[in-house]
Structures are given as structure tokens and as C-alpha cells.
């Protein structure tokens, strides 16, 4: 089934669902009902609150409508007739009026059976094009009309739909697996992070165990970058408002900026929503020569975005965002080579997590020039450079029109996790605009002042979001190099605690993260306790091991123990804990 056909199916199912709902609530008001990723939703103004218990009834009615094979027929109506017909429907009146003000010539309606609705389509021609076993209603939620909290709260019903029942079943199984892997649940169980009402929503607190993971991820990225000539820099967490007004972020991110008030100055300061304007000022701190370029500034630092409370979700959407950020300032003739280096870093990084990548070239939308900084020539040049890079590399890619950053085009890398979900994480972004806005210059070989090109790059993206993805990717069972607790030593009885302590000291001397369970619990319970925390290696110490026999290592996720000779235990553990460079 083509994407176009699947879109039509999903869109038509939102209408069919509405037909079923109207059988139960004939006077229900109708909000919007678009296609979304994997399915559809529809907003209703209902006379009472409903729960998911009603879904079986609605689904049954939907299947009857499909089996009747109702036709979907489109027709246009002039604005005067449309407003007259729906004068008592405030939702349709608002939408029709908006279309009229936008300059549309008429209003598109679709009729299916006795149901007619304002809609531009597209839809299936006949309902039987849809497999009646290919959809399922999933959840109900409240949603303000037009997304404005000043408006009435409507009831939104979400559904999913696929080509057929097997595809639907596959998706539902993925959702079930995703629920088990939920990073919010695992983060608490594994003691990785916490939230506090006193600190505030969207501001995660990382425990010692969670901080180990963050530091290992940062170190891994740095070790991949260092051979390519990156230098670490440090910037403050706030800045004058003028910095972001100059960069253009002030207007584009006006609703997302945290403002700082001060009794000691009249100047307006903000918490930094991004790092690139600060990095431009490090470049601008002295005159640069073409021989100095490229300059590659890197740091792991937090930015702050005033996200809506309702959009916050665990580590996936937060207000304090730690970025593994870097910016390259280079000559035009160096752009392709520098981008190639970043590409190599990104592919090595995700290969270590066994996360396949696909690539989008995120371009600007020529029909909406007001969304972007810079003129047509700048965008054509920068998009051409990135296309050239991808073609030289030989990678397949899709062009995503309208997905560019406001200051330049980008290559976005979409990673696939263990259960098939896709995540846009890494990016290479080309920028001719910030150097222009900040009047950055270097002296070229002809002793003339020239603008550098700026490349923005992210490898893991935000540490918070990447940790959320990674926790769910591994279901909390991290590889030994990344695990907050790598090894747990379990003595069979108190008699062997001394030997276990000596082993722990030797392992910790090699910078391994080791815990000793010397509690009074039985061996079986100690091993289960380690498994609950998903510790990669659990080493049982008893009479055989003390006498110089092989170590039995319980490896999380494996049925059989790993047998390691006593003389090899430290070497094997050290090798397994190395960064996957």
C-alpha cells in the first residue's frame, strides 16, 4: 500500500469514527480531525465525558459503516451558502470564515452517507477500500479548541490504522514493548534520575548512577571528536538579550526564552536557549587568519527552553537541555571536508549502539521565505553544498522541504531503536547567516576581510533526550562500558567477604565500577537483586574461586554463566569496559 493510500484510509477513518460517534451523540459538535503519525484523531464537543470503555461500541459501529461501503463524495460550496447552512455551528463558522479571509474561492465538503463535513480531503472513494480489521481506537484526552486554553475544552479520540490486521498487530505489540521500556519507569527503578516539585517541572536531577551514564556518553563523543581537532570551550548560562536579538533567535524563539530580572542593573538578561551566539563571540574575540581555520569549538553545556508544562515528558521533553554542542568556523572550501568529518563521527557513534541511520536533507520552503534568515542565493549555495556532500559519500537521502533551521539547511540523521521506532537525533547544519549577522571576519590569503562559514553539529543531540531513547533502546540493560554499575561481587557467605573485598579493590584500581553485596541474604536472592538492577556482570565468590578456580560470571540477559580463569578476570573486565572506539 502506498503512503498516499494509507493517508486516505486514515483520513477517511476519522470521518467514519465521527459517523459512529454521531449515532451515539447526534448533537455532538465537531472540531478538527487530521491524519497524524500512525493514525488519526477527531475532536468532539460532547454532552458528557467519556472513557475508553466506549471504544468497542464505536469500533463496532465503524466496521458496520465500512461494510455498508459508503461513498466519499467531494463538492465545493460558496462561502455565503456554507455560512448560512452552518450558522448554528460555531466551530464550522470559525473555520469557514478563516478560509474566506485567507482568500480561498470556496469551501470543500465531503459527504459520506448522511454525514457531511467541512474537509479538503483526500479520502477513499468507497469505504470498502479500508480493511475493517486494520484500525483500533487507542485513547481519549482533552484538547482546547484550536489549541488555545482560552477556548472550550473538547474531547479528542485517537486511533491508529495500518494497511491490514498483521501490520496493526505489529504496531500494537511494539507499543506494548515500548510501555515495558518506558524510560520514566526504568529511570526510577534503576535510580538514574528524579524530579522534584520544589525544583520545578522539566528540570531533571541526575543521581550518581545517572551521572555516570551522562559522563560516559560525553566522554565517548569527545574521544570521537578529538582526533579531528576539536577544542573545548566554556560559556556562561546567561547572556544579554541583545545577543539573541542580533542572532535572530529573539524573534524566532520569543515564547521559549526564560527572562532574568535583576535589582542591580537595568539591562535585560536571559537564560541561554542555545549556545551558537556565544560561540560566535569567542571567534570574534580576536582577528583570525585563514591559516587559523577551521576553528572547532566544542562543549557539553545546558540550555534552557520555556516549554509548556503539558508538553513535558520525562527526559524526552525538558526545560533544562544538556547539549553535546560544537560549532566549526571555516572557509567555504573547507565546508565539505569538515562536514565529512562530522558525518564520520556520527556514524561511528550510532554504530556503537547498533542503531541504524537514515538521512534527511532538511531544506527550506521557498513558499515561506519569512520563516528563514538570508536570501535565495545563500540558501541555494548552502543546500547545494550539503547535497554535494551526500552525493560524494554515496548515501541515500530524502529531501524534507520546510524542515531546515531558520538560519540554514541541515542533514538530519534518523536513528532506529531496538523496537523499530525512529528518532531524529544527530544533525549537521550549515549557516551563512550568523556570521553575517555578527559580522564575523577573517583575513584571507589576499589580505582581505572575509566571512567564515559556520557549521553547527550535534552527535547525541541533547543528553536528556538521548538518555531517554537509549534507556528504552536497551530496556535499561546497558552494555558494560556504559552501565553505571558494571560488576557486582556476590560472596557465597561471610567466610568469603574478605576475598571479595580484595577482588573489588583490584577491579576498582582499573577504574571499573564495582559493588560488593555483603548482605546476609542468600546467594540466589543476591543474584536476583543484581538482575533487578540489570547489572551486566555478577561474579559469585565461594570456596572454588578462593582456591584459584575459574570465576563463574552471571551475564545479564544470558542463560549460561561465562567462565573466566582467575588470572584473566581483570583483563577481561577491563577490555569489556573500554569505549567502543
Helical proportion, percent range:
25-40%
Please indicate the percent range of residues in DSSP E strands (runs of 2 or more): 25-35%
Number of domains: 3
Radius of gyration of CA atoms, rounded to a whole number: 29 Å
End-to-end Cα distance: 41 Å
Strand order of the largest sheet: 11-16-17-24-21-20-18-19
CATH C-level name of the largest domain = Alpha Beta
For the largest beta-sheet, the strand count, sense and barrel status come to: 8 strands, mixed
The assigned structural class equals alpha+beta
List low-confidence stretches. Answer: none
According to CATH, the fold-level topology of the largest domain is: BirA Bifunctional Protein, domain 2
Morphology: globular
Give the beta-strand count. 29
CATH architecture classification of the largest domain:
2-Layer Sandwich
CATH superfamily of the largest domain: Bira Bifunctional Protein, Domain 2
Total number of helices: 18
Provide the residue-averaged pLDDT. 93
Amino acid at each position: 500500500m502506498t503512503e498516499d493510500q494509507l493517508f486516505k484510509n486514515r483520513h477517511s477513518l476519522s470521518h467514519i469514527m465521527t459517523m459512529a460517534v454521531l449515532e451515539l451523540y447526534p448533537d455532538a459538535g465537531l472540531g478538527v480531525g487530521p491524519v497524524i503519525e500512525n493514525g488519526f484523531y477527531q475532536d468532539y464537543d460532547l454532552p458528557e465525558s467519556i472513557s475508553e470503555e466506549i471504544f468497542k461500541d464505536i469500533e463496532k459501529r465503524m466496521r458496520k459503516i465500512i461494510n455498508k461501503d459508503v461513498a466519499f463524495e467531494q463538492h465545493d460550496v460558496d462561502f455565503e451558502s456554507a455560512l448560512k447552512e452552518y450558522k448554528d455551528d460555531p466551530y464550522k463558522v470559525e473555520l469557514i470564515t478563516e478560509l474566506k479571509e485567507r482568500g480561498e474561492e470556496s469551501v470543500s465538503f465531503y459527504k459520506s452517507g448522511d454525514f457531511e463535513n467541512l474537509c479538503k480531503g483526500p479520502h477513499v472513494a468507497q469505504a470498502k477500500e479500508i480493511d475493517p480489521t486494520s484500525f483500533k481506537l487507542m485513547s481519549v484526552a482533552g484538547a482546547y479548541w484550536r489549541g488555545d486554553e482560552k477556548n472550550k475544552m473538547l474531547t479528542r479520540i485517537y486511533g491508529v490504522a495500518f494497511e491490514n490486521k498483521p501490520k496493526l498487530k505489529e504496531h500494537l505489540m511494539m507499543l506494548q514493548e515500548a510501555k515495558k521500556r518506558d524510560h520514566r519507569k526504568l529511570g526510577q527503578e534503576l535510580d538514574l534520575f528524579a524530579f522534584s516539585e520544589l525544583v520545578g517541572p522539566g528540570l531533571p536531577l541526575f543521581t550518581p548512577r545517572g551521572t555516570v551514564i551522562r559522563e560516559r556518553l560525553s566522554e565517548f563523543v569527545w574521544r570521537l571528536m578529538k582526533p579531528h581537532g576539536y577544542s573545548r570551550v566554556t560559556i556562561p548560562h546567561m547572556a544579554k538579550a541583545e545577543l539573541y536579538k542580533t542572532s535572530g533567535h529573539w524573534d524566532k524563539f520569543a515564547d521559549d526564552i526564560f527572562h532574568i530580572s535583576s535589582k542591580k542593573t537595568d539591562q535585560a538578561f536571559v537564560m541561554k536557549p542555545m549556545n551558537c551566539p556565544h560561540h560566535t563571540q569567542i571567534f570574534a574575540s580576536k582577528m583570525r587568519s585563514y591559516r587559523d581555520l577551521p576553528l572547532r569549538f566544542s562543549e557539553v553545556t545546558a540550555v534552557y527552553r520555556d516549554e509548556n508544562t503539558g508538553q513535558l515528558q520525562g527526559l524526552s521533553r525538558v526545560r533544562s537541555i544538556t547539549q553535546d554542542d560544537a560549532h566549526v568556523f571555516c572557509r567555504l572550501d573547507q565546508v565539505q571536508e569538515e562536514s565529512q568529518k562530522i558525518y564520520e563521527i556520527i556514524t561511528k557513534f550510532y554504530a556503537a549502539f547498533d542503531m541504524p541511520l537514515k538521512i534527511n536533507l532538511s531544506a527550506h520552503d521557498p513558499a515561506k521565505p519569512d520563516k528563514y534568515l538570508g536570501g535565495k542565493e545563500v540558501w541555494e549555495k548552502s543546500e547545494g553544498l550539503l547535497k554535494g556532500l551526500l552525493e560524494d559519500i554515496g548515501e541515500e537521502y530524502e529531501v524534507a522541504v520546510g524542515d531546515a533551521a531558520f538560519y540554514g539547511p541541515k542533514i538530519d540523521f534518523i536513528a532506529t531503536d531496538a523496537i523499530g521506532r525512529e528518532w531524529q537525533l544527530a544533525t549537521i547544519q550549515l549557516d551563512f547567516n550568523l556570521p553575517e549577522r555578527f559580522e564575523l571576519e577573517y583575513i584571507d590569503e589576499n589580505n582581505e576581510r572575509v566571512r567564515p562559514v559556520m557549521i553547527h553539529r550535534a552527535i547525541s543531540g541533547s543528553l536528556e533526550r538521548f538518555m531517554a531513547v537509549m534507556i528504552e533502546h536497551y530496556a535499561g540493560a546497558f552494555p558494560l562500558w556504559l552501565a553505571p554499575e558494571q560488576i557486582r561481587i556476590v560472596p557465597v557467605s561471610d567466610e568469603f567477604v574478605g576475598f571479595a573485598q580484595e577482588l573489588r579493590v583490584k577491579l576498582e584500581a582499573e577504574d571499573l565500577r564495582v559493588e560488593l553485596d555483603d548482605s546476609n541474604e542468600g546467594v540466589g536472592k543476591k543474584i536476583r537483586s543484581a538482575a533487578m538492577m540489570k547489572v551486566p556482570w555478577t561474579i559469585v565468590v565461594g570456596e572454588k574461586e578462593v582456591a584459584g578456580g575459574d570465576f563463574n560470571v552471571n551475564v545479564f540477559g544470558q542463560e549460561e554463566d561465562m567462565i573466566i580463569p582467575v588470572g584473566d578476570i581483570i583483563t577481561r573486565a577491563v577490555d569489556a569496559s573500554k569505549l567502543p572506539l
